[in-house]
């Protein structure tokens, strides 16, 4: 983990205008369930969803940026009212930069949560790189905050609550 003081973390959190999230391993536990018909199922955590709703109420934008093109992710995003949902993204950083331009914010005002190697470039570019307890070691070495909980088990709620508290 990139070592920063508690006051520096609070300062970074207070600057966040957008929370961008990976899906598999962050909003889910990273497991994929296959039905006999070959359909892939993902399990999302209801506590994470409530945290996202509270964060949006506090005025922070939320985005999903994922390499997979799963209808289940789109459905979950719609349930949560996440309008910035990008599926099948090959270059997450380019997508995030485009979104930041649209929202008229800088990368320094973004908190990004990613757990695996395809998130490293984004983590290195944003003002508040974060990851989950069970993320890859390299992601943890870049992050300014590592959740106490693993992905898909309330980690996003943990981050949302910190961001909501920093909005007050």
UniProtKB/TrEMBL annotation:
One annotated GO molecular function is:
N-acylneuraminate cytidylyltransferase activity
- Its transmembrane ranges are none
User: Is Metal-binding one of the keywords?
Assistant: yes
Name its co-factor(s).
Mg(2+)
Signal sequence span per UniProt? none
Q: Where does Mg(2+) bind?
A: 22, 115
Q: Which CDD domains match?
A: HAD_KDO-like (cd01630)
Protein's recorded name: HAD family hydrolase
Record organism: Gloeocapsopsis dulcis AAB1 = 1H9
């Amino acid at each position: 983990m990139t070592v920063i003081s508690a006051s520096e973390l609070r300062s970074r959190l207070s600057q966040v205008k957008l929370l961008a999230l990976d899906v598999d391993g962050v909003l889910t536990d990273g497991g994929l369930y296959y039905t006999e018909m070959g359909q892939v199922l993902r399990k999302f955590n209801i506590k994470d969803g409530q945290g996202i709703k509270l964060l949006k109420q506090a005025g922070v934008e939320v985005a999903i940026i994922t390499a997979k093109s799963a209808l289940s992710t789109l459905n979950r995003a719609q349930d949560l009212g996440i309008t910035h949902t990008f599926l099948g993204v090959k270059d997450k950083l380019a997508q995030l930069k485009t979104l930041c331009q649209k929202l008229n914010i800088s990368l320094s005002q973004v908190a990004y949560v990613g757990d695996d190697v395809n998130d490293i470039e984004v983590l290195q570019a944003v003002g508040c790189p974060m990851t989950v307890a069970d993320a890859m070691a390299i992601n943890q070495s870049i992050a300014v905050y590592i959740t106490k909980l693993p992905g898909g088990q309330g980690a996003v709620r943990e981050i949302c609550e910190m961001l909501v508290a920093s909005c007050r």
